[in-house]
Inverse folding.
């Protein structure tokens, strides 16, 4: 396949030399059910990763607590040695228990171990971007100090194990406080067509040139449902999920998308969104959904 390089244009992460296409890929769904254990089909998982990169994706979101260890090991198996322009973004701040539960892992010792395990399982000497995932509330941002874990992560950056630091599942207050400790390359929070609590924050980050990476851009484990979305998709001869992703791309130029899938067909549908432009009248309808 000929490589496509203009996947919804590109974005240069502030304070870095990293320029990524705005249509990326999230590896979470490559793990087993509930993001725990191995995938049902390892060969297909590897094929999805290779197809994504061959199609022009150069931004992959992952974490060593997906599986755990599963997605990083698959990424290494599929793509190592990595293309020079591939940006691998990982997350720390959580771990999994023996039943797949999500547990905070915020101590300096836990964060150091997490970074070292990400490096080992990805086959890297340094991580491009590491997002500190707040676990003050597992499901949504919650106010509280992140100074201690962020300071520990900044020390790992000083040691040369991490190039840049981002944040995930955080509030505007926490972002401002974090910027007093270290430059923030990106913010990864939940945001999609129907969940827009971060609209104001998104605009603030855009003004600063900071990347905003919405997780669950299609609703996550509860896919987006909207009659308006269905109607727009039918008129544009696209799928509802393609329209939802296109809406995000047109919402703000600092949005980087990382839709995940374990299906080759679904991957191709997602990447095709880079060529889908929503007319103003349809945008107006979609803006009224939330």
């Amino acid at each position: 396949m000929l490589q496509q390089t203009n996947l919804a244009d590109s974005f240069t992460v502030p304070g870095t030399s990293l320029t990524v296409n705005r249509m990326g890929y999230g590896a979470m769904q490559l793990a087993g059910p509930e993001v725990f254990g191995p995938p049902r089909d390892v060969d297909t998982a590897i094929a999805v990763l290779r197809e994504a990169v061959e199609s022009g994706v150069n931004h992959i979101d992952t974490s060593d607590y997906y599986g755990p260890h599963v997605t990083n090991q698959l990424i290494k198996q599929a793509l190592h040695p990595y293309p020079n322009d591939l940006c691998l973004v990982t997350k720390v701040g959580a771990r999994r228990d023996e039943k797949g539960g999500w547990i905070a892992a915020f101590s300096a010792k836990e964060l150091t171990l997490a970074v070292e395990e990400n490096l080992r399982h990805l086959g890297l000497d340094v991580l491009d971007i590491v997002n500190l995932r707040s676990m003050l509330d597992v499901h949504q941002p919650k106010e509280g100090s992140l100074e201690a874990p962020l300071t520990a992560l900044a020390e790992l950056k000083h040691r040369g194990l991490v190039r840049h630091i981002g944040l995930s599942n955080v509030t505007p207050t926490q972002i401002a406080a974090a910027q007093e400790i270290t430059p923030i390359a990106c913010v990864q929070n939940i945001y999609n067509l129907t969940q827009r609590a971060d609209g104001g924050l998104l605009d603030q980050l855009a003004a600063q040139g900071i990347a905003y990476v919405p997780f669950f851009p299609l609703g996550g484990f509860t896919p987006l449902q909207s009659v308006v979305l269905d109607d727009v998709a039918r008129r544009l001869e696209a799928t509802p999920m393609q329209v939802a992703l296109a809406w995000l791309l047109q919402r703000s130029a600092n949005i980087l998308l990382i839709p995940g899938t374990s299906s080759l067909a679904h991957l191709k549908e997602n990447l095709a969104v880079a060529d889908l432009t929503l007319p103003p009248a349809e945008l107006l309808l979609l803006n009224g959904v939330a």
About this structure: The first helix runs from residue 42 to 54. Residues 10-222+247-262 form a domain with the TIM Barrel fold (CATH 3.20.20.100). The chain has one domain: 10-222+247-262. The CA atoms of residues 11 and 19 lie 5 Å apart.
